Amino acid sequence: MSTETQIEVVMPQMGVSVSEGTITKWLKQPGDPIARDEPLLEISTDKVDTEVPSPGEGVLAEILVQEGETVEVGTVIARIGAAAAPAPPTGPAAAPAPPLAPVAAPPEPPPGSVEPGPVVSERGPEAPADEWAATDNGKRFISPVVARIAAEHGVDLAVVPGTGTGGRVTKKDILAYIASRAPAPPEEPGLATEPAPAAVATPAPPPPAQPPPAPATSAPAAPPSPAPPAAPEPLQAAPGEALEPMSAMRRGIAEHMRRSLDTAAHVTSAIEVDMSRVVALRQKLKPQVERDHGVNLTYLAFIARAAVDTLADYPWINGEIRDDQIVTRSFVNLGIAVELAEGKGLIVPVLRNAETLNLLGIAKGIADLAQRARGKKLLPDEVQGGTFTITNPGSYGTFHGTPIINQPQTAILGTYAVVKRPWVVQDELGNDVIAIRPIMNLTLTYDHRLVDGALAGRFLRDLREKLEVWDEAAY
Amino acid sequence: MAELTYIQAISEGLRQEMRRDPRVFVLGEDVGVYGGAFKVTLGFQEEFGPWRVIDTPLSETAIVGGATGAALMGLRPVAEMQFADFVSCAWDHLVTVAAKQFFRARTPIPIVVRLPSGGGFSGGPFHSQNPESSFAHIPGLKIVCPATPADAKGLLATAIEDPNPVLFFEHKHLYRRIKAEVPEERYTIPFGQARTHRPGDDAVVVTWGAMVHTAAEAAERLAGEGYEVEVLDLRTLIPWDEERVLESVRRTSKVLVLHEDTRTGGFGAEIAATIAERAFEHLDAPIVRVAAPDTPVPFSPPLEKAFIPQVEDVVQALQELLAY
Lengths: 475, 324
Prior knowledge:
The complex is a heterodimer.
Chain A: E1 7-10, E2 20-26, E3 33-34, E4 39-44, E5 49-53, E6 58-63, E7 70-72, E8 76-81, H1 127-133, H2 144-153, H3 171-181, H4 189-193, H5 195-199, H6 248-263, E9 266-274, H7 276-293, H8 299-311, E10 320-322, E11 325-327, E12 334-336, E13 338-339, E14 346-347, E15 350-351, H9 359-374, E16 388-391, E17 411-426, E18 432-447, H10 453-468
Parallel strand pairs in A: 12-16, 16-17
Antiparallel strand pairs in A: 1-8, 2-4, 2-7, 3-6, 4-5, 6-8, 9-18, 10-11, 12-15, 13-14, 17-18
Helix pairs in contact in A: 2-3, 8-9, 8-10
Chain B: E1 2-5, H1 6-20, E2 24-28, H2 44-48, E3 53-55, H3 60-72, E4 76-80, H4 91-105, E5 112-117, H5 132-136, E6 142-144, H6 149-161, E7 166-171, E8 179-182, E9 195-198, E10 203-207, H7 211-223, E11 229-233, E12 236-238, H8 242-252, E13 255-262, H9 267-278, E14 288-292, H10 301-307, H11 311-323
Helix pairs in contact in B: 1-6, 3-4, 7-11, 8-9
């Protein structure tokens, strides 16, 4: 009971840098009465020797630290009991005044900017946190790092459970979600942060307007559940196998290829084209085009030019099935499949309004897109909105293939190696003779839901015709 | 290895440099006979004589001006300010002459100005400041703020060797409070290399000087709540270890910048801005600053306690950051 009226005597701070002091002499003994500020003891520190006055009035109750001992500043060294009148509670550093507490709150506006009204706003531990994440549109705040990780991994944040303020998805939340979804560790971010690859082969899983429900094709497989799936089982490589994480682009391609096959009824028709005229024309024009325009005139440019021209007569092949409607267009946005270095994937930049370009314009456009695709300099817009695609696997000598349609388009043209073949032609007398001719196979892979075999056949026939009787003046 | 206090380590390091290099000398108010306001140079005049331990008049302008002139003539002066606060009197010599001399005339000014700084002992507005950010803004000056005895000794040796003017901020509150093992032999610690005071992956506190210990104590408390908070001691502000800070930011995604200096225009603002510029996409929460409010340092003990960031302040800010 006496403690309430006792005054604690502490080792005083005798200089700015002094942290301890030695008691050299007690000037009072227990039981001695003492007045406030009366010398009570002598101490010695690094810097000074001095007397210490009593912090209050009363009777010296007990001495806790004996002469010759060294203690830290602030240590209680003695207690003074109450005399007749209860001493005012002058307990030294023990009780910092409560009203000052808010001053220490860390996110403190400068004094000048304090708004009128309540002097210092209540900053309970919870207040600022809520303030940080508060949004008035009902949407959860997405931090920069979470946005980046979501983009890299193609995660729809709506399905990730959030544990942050206001249900915000934290970095830990999304990493846990990804770990539970796919065991592959994240790939190097460099490639994936480029805007183009994400949009590349895929216009990304859900189009922006669509809410959480996954794209139709994957819906049955993985209904989005708010709770993260059960414990991730890390993949183990069998002896002789090696594991390698899938890049975001590769995942995009994989998803898109599967989805296209699940969507369209793929059929491929092929045709053989005598490229004699194109070969001759190219030989003639190539040096000049290279010199005057710095463009390498490729066979692809000729085929693209002829295909765009042919499409004008076949709007459905340049069309699209959208819900239960058939979309046709007055323009051709020509997708050109471009392989990235070291087999790192494929990107399909789009040459817009190709129907307005002549042979040189197409050659230039393709060269520019291919170069920027390989340099990762494409803009997101340049890999979207294609209406028809050309893929050119022939540069390695293959003579046939069955490409997969770039959704939501209807057809894709494959071009293959130009090969010298013995070819039956008619001489000027109308006799069949065998000649050596540069022959190229072209394939058209089309969505049989919209394009019948006969239509595709006619398209290929017309395309062949244009290439075989190339009219230099017209192009 | 001997266990030394922070101030003993500075004293020891300075003595070693003076024994090693006859060009090194000290000057300042009461550094000779009295041994310095905080006794860093106690016994120096006996060992090195009055010409290498020079008691100067009460004029910081004269001290830094004299040091600059001596450096121009090939010496390596170590000037002592009794309190960092008083360096403002020498602003012109430091900022206009010492910082720009090499740029103007290709003559290096290898001076070290020792600046006992910081509060925590009711020193009031003239004996408690941390003016490092004012000088960090001046191209041509280097800024050192050690937090441990071993760093204080190693960084002092580097500062004396450095051909530029170096401001060496010694935190008074650490002088006799911090004790640790310090190698007896001479060694240097390169400028611009942060030190991991405490490892952790959940958040990082970027700080320096006495606040390193405040942050460490806060991190220790949060370890009890299951969080591992990294404490990164910058050790030098000019140059500062941007790469090391950014590495921590990329790993933890949550940053608290802590300093004892006042908030507006403090060096924490520079760090926060750099993080926002260079690691924006790695942030999972706003960068938080904990610093003193924008007032002079109050004398009254409870007010001063409210002014200087305390362990509780850092704990609370970290809790909010971790929960964000």
